[in-house]
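#struct-pred
JK: can someone run the complex with 6-chloroguanine? inputs below
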Amino acid sequence: MNYYVLTLFPEMIENGMHTSIIGRAIAGGCLSLETVNIRDYSLTGNGRIDDYPYGGGAGMVMQAEPICRAYEDLVQRIGKRPRVVYLTPQGRVFSQQMAEEFAREQDLIFLCGHYEGIDERVLEEIVTDHVSIGDYVLTGGELPAMVMMDAIARMVPGVLSNRESGQYESFQDGLLEYPQYSRPEEWRGKQVPPVLLSGHHGNVERWRRDQSLLRTLKNRPELLAGAELDKKDRSFLRSLLDETPTGQDGQEPDAGCGTSGTAGMGDGKGLTPEEKKILTKLLAFSEKA
Ligand code: 6GU
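RT: done, structure tokens with the ligand placed:
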């Protein structure tokens, strides 16, 4: 995978991308990264690339020509016209599915805006994909570009080692990841769930699946509606409806089952009345299907 980034802050991209797993993948040749400073394509040669918006209003607009020149110079050099992703809160919201799709490309160009935006005419000419990373506003497209490049890179063969492989992580099967524990067995009075020390592989797998279901229900119930649930999943979820509700203070009604101690993540076991309502509907639907 070859990444190209058109930006006013190439050092921000370079610093962020030459670190950790992505940095290793670039050093190892699985990924390549080239940043292009849009300022180098300023019309006046003084580095100025923005101007006042026609029609008035606050802020400045990045002009079409410097961006177009930076783009044309790049595609000339690489000899192809890859997809161009423009990072904007007005775009389609990025997802794991989109990361998997972009990962099948050989080359990707990211266009990062700043100020109030970019002259629409150059966007019409060069951009193939408008992408947002969520419903909040950031000061520029650099962090979103890095978010996308990171998520896409994980899906590129060779970037992750077997240990790091994303095969069983959140979203792969439509559920959130289960909680993880490492040494020591007791930390500040908190025990590792006993089932994880039991050595019983089947029970461990079942517990993890249940925790994934519970977490997804509590934090992202809309994902649970789309997940594939088998008989054992439904049976676990049904059992949650029979438990006494957890108070607002997070007091556990069922100590000793090995699920306490995760309340901080919003996934203490007792369900709120609202969660029970969601779950009841979901089970009715899932049992019909
Ligand atoms: Cl892609 N850009 C900016 N500036 N803000 C954002 C965004 C992108 N996605 C969410 N917020």
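RT: quick notes.
Confidence is low (pLDDT under 50) at residues 250-267.
The longest helix spans residues 201-219.
JK: thanks, will look after standup
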